[in-house]
Amino acid sequence: MDLSKPLSRISALYSDNLERNGPVSTAVGWNTPESQRLRFEKLTSVVEADAAPFSVNDYGCGYGAHLDHLLERGMRVSAYHGYDLSEKMLDTARARLAGFQGELDLRQSATVETEADYTFVSGTFNVRFEASEEEWKRFILAKLDEMHRQSRKGFAFNLLSTYVDWQEPHLFYGDPLFWFDHCKRNYSRKVSLLHDYPLYEWTIVVRI
């Protein structure tokens, strides 16, 4: 399964978005800051409310907005490992997050290479371009295996829902029942499916 071409196009897409819009929600595919924050809220529910300082893998980190959200919530992030395909996004994240007091590690990689307490994925799997649905599904399954191996306490991810009236041909839509079953059978007994918020997507939270 060679996904080098669609991954290269994804990198170019977000680099172009950043150049056009600057480091705002539309640069990473979200229409409004409010919808971006709502997604972060759902993903962040994997972290216990009274959590001690914790480390994070952010797969598809963009310009680092999820770290901003965690810090604004008063959460004590000890280390932030951000992954992105776009070097321009990573350069912007380095500049924006220069004042972060914890360990800052930003990498241009499609592989989750670091162990952390929690791993987050927000929108990273939405665009597949010319990859077939089956190829992209296998790619996501492999990434979830990586996330499970590299997450000490849990991970959370979102996908566009198949419960929609229409679908864009270059995007990937996930059946929430399939992905819930996969996570429940393979990763943990403690799995939550969140599909009760006003966006055309769902979030799965896995506590380990």
What would you say this structure looks like, in words?
With 208 residues, this protein is α/β, with parallel strands linked by helices. The radius of gyration is 16 Å and the shape is globular. Helices cover 37% and strands 25% of the residues. The two termini are 30 Å apart. It is built from six helices and eight strands; from the N terminus they run H-H-E-H-E-H-E-E-H-E-E-H-E-E.
* Mean pLDDT metric: 92
What is the strand content? 15-25%
Shape: globular
Beta-strand segment tally: 8
Largest sheet: 8 strands, mixed
* Alpha carbon gyration radius: 16 Å
CATH fold field value: Rossmann fold
Helix content: 25-40%
Compact overview of the structure:
The chain has a single domain, classed as Rossmann fold, CATH 3.40.50.150. 37% of the residues lie in helices and 25% in strands. Strands 1, 2, 3, 4, 5, 6, 7 and 8 form an eight-stranded mixed sheet that branches.
